[in-house]
Amino acid sequence: MHAFITAVRIPLADMVAIARPDHWFKNVFMIPGLVIGVLFVPAVRPDIASAVLIGLISTCLIASANYTINEWLDAESDRHHPLKHMRSAAQGRLVASQIFAQYLTLSVVGLGLASLVSKDFFLISNVLLMMGVLYNVRPFRTKDRSYLDVISESVNNPLRLLLGWFIVVDGSFPPSSVLMAYWMGGAFLMAIKRYAEFRFIGDPQRASLYRRSFAGYDEKTLLLSGFFYAITASFFLAIFLIKHRIEFVLSFPLFAILFVWYLSIGMKNGSAAQRPEKLFRETPFMAYVGFLVAAVAVMQLVDMPFLYPLLDVQQLGQDAGN
Where is the chain membrane-spanning (predicted)? Predict the structure, then answer.
């Protein structure tokens, strides 16, 4: 009897593990979309609290559906990773029928909840689910293609921002500059994750067996691509922040420090950048993120008239001519 109970518990624990509830924290990337939506649309829907809760649960379930097929379809390649070879799928402890049932259940329930939030929220939820298919399933499997792997996975960042936005706003999109900044910022995080993984494995041949896209990378190209994504994200972030409120110009050095600090984390041996869900262990970095959020909030609330001349482009041109 005891052996039977144990046999049941092990698959159940494995199924929960491949849904990766420890990754649900990534859905905090919905919050900026929600905040921006409130700033752009002062009249907040009366059921905002329940909409946020339902929307968050929905997004977590859809993300878990994507994680479920991710781990199942990565089983063979994960066997070449120093740590991931211990995953249940890599060790052959799961069967296809279980995976399909869990994926279908999470998808249907997640989309069902999404439909209760708004039509646009439901639409973007479908796109988020589809991105999981494009990223993981052959013949698409964008994760196997160098550079496209980072670009396609980081699309989930602006999608999460849109999900937060559409909890508040109906029928219109946020500024394209903030969407691009979010996308490229996510690409930077993903490139540094790839860099940390590549260094951790320490063998280019084994790394390419684990992740096919590594065949087109080395440490230098991963760092250079991350640098490109960081610059591009900063450019679009600057456009959005300055157009919205000139006080935000003071936040640029703070965001630059954030990028550099995360890069330094990625360069550590056994870096937390490999598993962002463990990033909370980088206490000073997380404290700095909190400080940055507070600083941006102050810049939103406090007028700084000494910055207003920077908006007078005509006057600046005359001064430059003199």
Answer: 24-42, 48-73, 94-115, 121-137, 158-174, 222-242, 248-265, 285-302
